[in-house]
Structure formats: structure tokens, C-alpha cells
């Protein structure tokens, strides 16, 4: 057991966020939950460049989740948080929330949906908005060989297809239900989702666009052309209110996010990896904002 504990400590990736060249003697240690693959990409990237000064996000090896953690570091730096981030592996969205509720971890490197944070008002603090409601558009990604899916043009066509998603991703699950697929299955693992779509066991799943100039392909999948969905919620960093110094951490993040938004850096960063990208700006949105239905009552 003691050897396992040593190995766990050795596997931790530690980054320091400083507001200047000289660190004080007692920085706050901030335990942060992060997906293992994102942590590995972050570690490699940090060896190549100063992530606190990164402006061009277009060549990142991963999408939104890697942008999240880079912006988290930059926001804490700009907000003058005297803190040291220590990353712990966790790739399950729902478990992120449970672990934050426990107070053993300060925050998640992955932004969370506001509705999920607000469901735990006694234990979670939502940062200022990172991705605004209505800005998170996604493609209906299908196998490159799925001719039936790729020919779909409207909601009637989509309703004849099968879909998969994760019911714990509340905004995704809401959006995919709005599309009324012929069959919908819950799959918790994103790698398994991709495998099932690529093998055409399921016709499609919702994935944020991957854009390389005009190429929207992702692994062996393509988005059904000219149609998309919107995930009708905003994304925020979640800070555990049970963690010591939580308000200091939240204040620093919020101050940094305010500056990053003022510089238009956040919108540009997410557009670089395909979210709310000009290439798909004119594609038809198939699902309306659920709040519009409520306002019409």
C-alpha cells in the first residue's frame, strides 16, 4: 500500500500559477481534477511552451477540455492567485461533481454546465461564465461510411436515426432528446461512444466541431452537413465551497476571466478548436432554446 501511495504521488503533474517572478513562501496548494489524457497533453505542451502566455490555440492536440485547463491557469495567473495546482486523474463527469462536493478537491480543470453546478448550491461555487449560453454548438457526428446519416437534412430525417450520448452530460442529453432519435442509448464512456458510431452500431452522437481550415472530420467521423445542435447551457469552472480558501480561488478565477473576456481571448480560443466557428455559423440549428418554449406559455 505504501508503494502504491508513492507511485500515485510520483504520477501527479504539478504546475505553479504565479502572479510574478517571485513566489511567496506559502502558496495555496489547489488539488484539481482532470482527465488523464488531458493531463498528458498539458504536460507535453507545458514542456514546449509557456501556457500562461499561449495565444494561438489552433494547433492544440485536443479540443475544448485542453482549452479549459489552459484558460484556468491563465485566469488564476491574471487574478493573482498565489497557488500551486496539483492534478488528480478523473475522467468521469458525474464523479467530478461528487468529488468536489466532498471538499477534498478544490475544483475541476474541466468546465461544467451551470445547471449541474447550481444543483449543489451548498457545496459548489460557479465561476463567471466561460462559454456563454447559446455559443456551444455541436455537430451530429457519424461514421464516414454511413450514407443514410450523411444524407439527413432535417429533423424528420434525424428522427429515423439512432443516437448515443451520456445522460449525465445534462445539456447534451437534453439536446439529443430534442432531436427525437429513433433510438437513444446512454453510454458513459466517450471513447466507447466514438467506437459505436464509427462501427455504425449507432448512427450519431453530438460532438463539438473539429475544424482544420475547411476539414470538419474527426478521427473516422464526419458531421452531418449543414445541420447542427446547440447545447443550451453555459459553462463555468466549479469551485468546492468546502475547500479551504475557496473564495480566494473563486475571486482570482473571476478576476482573470473578466480580463480574458475583455481581451476576447476566450471566444477566440474556443473558436480555434471548433466551438461557435465561422465555418459552421450558418448551419441550421435543429433544436430550439427550451427557455423559448417556457416564455411562450
TrEMBL record:
Domain of life assignment: Bacteria
Give the protein's recorded name: Solute-binding protein family 3/N-terminal domain-containing protein
Which source organism? Pseudoalteromonas piratica
